[in-house]
Queue: 2 jobs
Job 1
Amino acid sequence: MVAASLSTPTAAAGAAPNGWVAALLASAPDGADALAATRAQAAPALAQTPLPSRRVEAWRFTDLAPLTALKPDRLTPEPAAALPEPLAGSLRLVLDGRSDPLAGISLPAGVEPIGGDELNATLGQVLAATGSAELWPVLLNGVTARQVLALRVRGPVATTLELVSDAGAGEGILPLRLLLVLEAESSLEILQVHRSGGANLTSVVLEARLGEGAELRHGLLAPGAETGCLLATVAVEQATGSRYSGVSAHGGWALGRLEPRLVQREGAAHSTLKALQLADGRQISDTHSQMVFEGPDGRLEQLHKAVADGQGRSVFNGAVQVPREAQRTDAAQLSRNLLLSDRARIDTKPELEIVADDVRCAHGATVSRLEQDELFYLQSRGIAADQAARLLLRGFCEEVLQELPAAARPWQPLASLLGEQGR
Amino acid sequence: MIRPDAPVLLEIRDLTARVEDQPILKGVSLTIRAGEIHAVMGRNGSGKSTLSKVLAGHPAYTVTGGTVLYKGEDLLSLEPELRARAGLFLGFQYPVEIPGVSNLEFLRVATNARRAGKGEEELDTFAFEDLVRERLQVVQMDPAFLERSVNEGFSGGEKKRNEILQMALLDPLVAVLDETDSGLDIDALRIVAGGVNHLAGPDNATLLITHYQRLLDVITPDYVHVMAAGRILRTGGKELALELEERGYDWVDAELAALERTPAEVG
C-alpha cells in the first residue's frame, strides 16, 4: 500500500499546451447541437489544463502514453461487429456518438427523453455536484461529444436498458455522453457495455441524479482491445433514501480508467460499488473512485477486486470523504488483489478523510498470489495445475461478475474480459 | 478383508520426508493390498498427516528418501493431479474453501479428470447431474450444497461429507482419509463412516489416519499401525487400537525411547 503524498496539480502547470490536445481542439466538431454550449466551455478549460502526467497525484501510476498515441480526432465509424442477442426483458440502445440511439425505438413506460431548455439546465449539474466538471477525461469528453442520451425515469421500470458501444477497429475518439434523471421513488436497471477492437478511445461521461427513494442498479462491462483506451466517468448524485448500486468490470485495454464519483447530498442514502479490473500484457487498469457524504446516516459498501498478470498494472484509489455533518456514516471499503506474475504491479490506496466523530469506516487491502492450498486441493482431485489456476481465477472474478445485471450474460463477461471469445 | 494373494496397491518403503528443514518422516514402510482397510494412529506430530500429504504430493513436503510404488509404479514422480487420476484419493483433514467456484462444477471437472484417467468417456452436464444426485445419497447430503461455492461456509460436518461425496464420485483405488472423524458429532460420524464402508470393496483399499478409536468402532480396520516420531512403531490387528484406547499413548513413548537408545541396524 502506498501512503498518500499529495502533490498539487500546479506542480505540472505551466506546461505548454500539449500538441495532442491542440490537434484535438482543432478537430473538435462545431454545430448547434445540444452539446454546443458544453463544447464551448470545455475547449478553453482543456487547453489550459495540463495533460495528466505522473507528477499529478491522481495520475501518478497511470501513464497516458497509450492514449496520446491515438489519433486526436473523432472516430471514423467502421461497420459494427455483430452483437449478441439481447436478453428478453432488456432494451438495447446502440451508441455511436453520431446517430440518434432512440431512432425507431419505443422506450418502456416511465422512461422519456429530456430535451430543450430542460436538458441545457440539467446537463453538467451532477458533474459539478460531484466535483467532476474539471476532470481531464470529462473535459476531453466535453470537447468531442456532439450527442447526449438524456432520459428521465418515473416510477419503477421493469425493462433493463442496455447502452452499448463498439468502437470497432477505427482510429480516433468515440465520445459518449449520458444523463439519467431518476424522479423520486423511481427505479431503473441499466447496463453499459463498451467494446473496442482497435486503436481508439472510448470516452464515456454518465451523469445520474437520483431523487428521494429512487434506485439505480448500474452495470458497466468494458472488455477492451490491445491498443484501445477507455476513460469512463460515472457521476452520481443521491438524494435521501436513494440507492445506487454500481457493478463494473473492465480489462484488456491498453489504458482503461474508471472514475465513479458519488455524492450523497443530504446523506441517508445507500451506495454500493463493486468492481473488477484486469490487466495483462502491458495493460493499465485503473479505478479512481470518490464517495462524498454531505449529510448524516449514509452508507457505502465498496468491494474492489483486481487481477494483474504479465506486465500488467492495476491501480486503485478509493477516496471516501466524511465531513463533520456526516455523522453516523457507515462506510466499508475492501480492495482485494491477485498478483499472477512477478512482473505485474498493483498499486492500491484507500484515501479516507474523516472529520465526523461518530462514524464506522472500515477499509482494507490485500494483495496475494493464488493460494497454494487451494491449488493443491484442486490438483488432488485430478485437476491439472493450469486448469486449477483458471478455476481459481474465475472464482475470484465471479464474485463481482455475478452481480452484473442479468442482461450482461449474453456478453459472456468473464470470457470477454479474459479475451477468450471470438469476436 | 485380508487376502494374502490380493494385488498390492500401495507399497511404501523407508519413506523419509521433510517440511522446510524439519525432517518429519523418518523411514515409513507399509504395504496395502486390495480389499484392506488400514488405520494409522498416533499422537499429534507423529507424522501421520504428513504421510497422507506426501502420498498425495503436497508441494510443501520434500521426499528425502525411500520409495512408494502405486500398482507397481513409482508414485512420487507423478504430479498430484496424475496421482488422483490414477485413483489415489486424499480426504483432507481441513477441506479447503474455494470462493466463487461452484461445488457442482468442481465435482464435475474432478470426476471427468478421474474418468479420463480410467479411460472412460467424460460425462456431460446432464449425465453428471444424474450421477451426483445418486451419489449424494451415500452421504445423505442436501443437493443445495451443489449450488454453493466449494466448501464455502460449510460446517465441519458438511465439509467432511463433501469429501466423502468426492470419494464416491472419484471411485478411488486407494483412499487416504486424514482425520476424517475430527470435528464430527456422532451423527455426522456415522454418516461419514457409513459412506466409507459403503465405498470400501474387494478391489480398493482404505488408509484411515486417525487419532481416536471412535472412528474404528464404526469402520473395522484389518490392520492398525501406531506411528511415532515419523515411523511406524508397531503393527497389529484391530485389537491394537483398543489397546491404545485403554493404555493411552504413554507406552508408545516408552517404546520409542527404548528404540532410540538402541540404534536400529541398518540393512
Job 2
Amino acid sequence: MVGGSSGKLVFTVNNLSVHYGRNLALKDVNMEIRSQRITAIIGPSGCGKSTLIRCLNRMNELIPGARVSGEVLYHGEDIYGPSVDPVVVRRHIGMVFQRPNPFPKSIYENIVFGAKINGYKGDMDELVERSLRRAALWDEVKGKLKKSALDLSGGQQQRLCIARAIAVEPDVIVMDEPASALDPIATTRIEDLMQELKRDYSIVIVTHNMQQAARVSDETAFLYTEVDEKTSDRWGILVEFGDTSQIFTRPRDKRTEDYVSGRFG
Amino acid sequence: MKAGIDDGLAVGNSCQRWAGGRVESGISLGQCRPTRRRVWRNRRNLVLVILAAAVTVLLVGLILYYIVSKGIGAMDWEFLTSSMPFSFRREGGGFLNGLVGTALMVGLASVVSIPLGILAAIYLVEYGGKNWLAKLIRFFSDVMTGVPSVFVGLFVYTALVIEFGFGALMGAASLAIIMMPIVVRSTEEMLKLVPQELKDASFALGAAKWQTIVRVVLPAAAPGISTGVMLAVARAAGETAPLILTALGSFQLTAKLWGEPMSSLTLAIFDGARNPFAAGQARAWAGALELLLIVLVLTVLARLISSRSRTTR
C-alpha cells in the first residue's frame, strides 16, 4: 500500500516484523514515507505504533529482547544492514518522546548536547538561538538560557526537546505522541510548529488523537490489533496507508472506517 | 446506594465494624464507634512514632554532648598542630600524627576504591544487568558490607603485613576493601534511579553508550553518588579494628607509606582511652571531638553538593 503522491522517498519499510522476546508485536508492515511531509500513524492502544516508529531510528534495540526482521530502507540503504552503526542512524533521524524529557541541565546545555557529542565546531550560541527560534521557543526563554530546563512548563519542555532534536540537523524527526501529555493550547503550538518544520524535515508522528492526525498530517497509516483466537496473542498490523484525506473520508478498509468514524478505539 | 466497603457484614447496621454502608436515619455520623476507635488508634500510633524519634535523637544528642563537653577542654591549637608526647602521662601535645595518618590512609583508600567502585557500579547497571558476573559482584559486595571489619584487617595482615610489615599502605588497603562495597552498592542504587527517558533522549540524539553514561547518567546521579561516597569515607575515617592489625599506631608524626607503623585518629583515641592516665584520656576525648567534626564537615559537604545540583523537579 503506497501513499499515492509525489515527494522523495525517505523510508521504505519492507515486511517489517518485531518480536519482544517470544511475542510478536508487529507483523509484516510495508509502507513508504516521503520527505517534507508529515506522516501520521494512528490506531488503538497496543497496536504497535510506538514500536513501528522506534524501528525507524533503531531505538527499539534499547529494549531488552526486542528483535526486528524485514527491511527499513533509508534513502535506499537498509538501516539494519550489517555495516550500519545504530548511533549513526540516530544522528540522522531525531526523535521526540511522549513525555517531555529534557536533561536536568540548563536550557543552553540541552540544546548544545547533541552538537557537542557529535563534535560540532561552529558557534554554539548561534546554534542555540537558531534551534530555539525554529522551535518557536526563543522569545520565551532568551533571557534565561542558563536556567534549568526543568523550570519550564510541560509545553515549553516539549518544544525544547524539539529544538534539541533539530539542533543536530537531522533529516527526519519521529515523534511519539508528542502532545499527549500537554494541554490543548500547548498542543496547538506543537502542531503549528510541525507545519513549520515540515518544510525542512520529514516528520513521522504517532498519535492516538484522530483529530490531530487529520489536522496535521499529509499521509496516514492506520494500525490495528489482530488477535489469535486460540492463544489470545495480539500483534499489530498495518491495515491501510494513504493520503490523510482519503483515509478519513473514503477509507478502503472496513476497520479503518469503523475506527476513524469513532465506532471503537 | 451504598458507600464504602461491604464485605458481607449486615448492611444497614451502620455502626458495626465498618463505618461505611448505609447510614440509618436518626444516627449521626459523629456517634459511630469505629470512627472514634480509629481516631484513638491514630493518635496512639502518632505518639509512639514521636517517642521513638525522640529516643533516637536523645541518644545522638547525649553522645554529642559528652564528646563535646569532655573533648573541648583539651582541644586547643597545640592539640591540632602537634603530635603525641611519648608518654600517656605527660600533658600537652596532640593528635597531629593521627590526623595525618587518617588523612593519608583514608585518602589513599578513596583514590583506589571510589573510582573502582563507581566503575563497577556502572558495569552492574549499564552492562551487566542480570548476567552471572554482575550477580557475582552484587553477591560479594553484599557479603563484604556485612563482614566485620576486623576480618578485613586480619586478611590484610596475613596477605601483606606479615611480608612487608605494618604501615600506612597496609592500613589504606584494608580501608579500601571496606569502602569498596559501600561505594558499589550505593552508586548502583543511584544509577538505577536515572530514568530511562533521559538515556533514551541521549541515544536519540546520536550519543554512544559511553557518551550517554558520562554526560547524562553520571551527572544525573552525581548528588546521590557523592552522598554514598561521603558515607564510605566517613565509615573509613571511623574504622579502628582493621588499622590495629595493619597500621598498628604510632607516637610519631610520619609520612612514610610503608616500613613504619602509622597512627590514625581512631588508633590514637583507642590508645589514649584505655590507658589509666588523665592526660592521655583527655587527649582521647579531644581526638574524638576532632574526628566528629571531620565527619560532620564531610556530611555537610555531601549535603551541599547534592542540594546544589538538582536532578528532578
